[in-house]
Amino acid sequence: MRLLLAEDDLNLGNALKQGLIKHGFQVDWVRDGQAVLYEVKNTSYVALVLDIGLPLKDGLTVLKELRADKNSLPVLVLTAQDGVDSITQGLDLGGDDYVIKPVALEVLAARLRAIIRRSEGMSQNEIQYGDLLLSPLSFTVELNGEELNLSKKEFALLHAFMLFSGRVLTKGQLEDQLYSWGHEVESNAIEVHIHNLRKKIGANYIQTIRGVGYQLKD
Question: Cβ(63)–Cβ(87) under 8 Å?
Answer without folding.
Answer: no
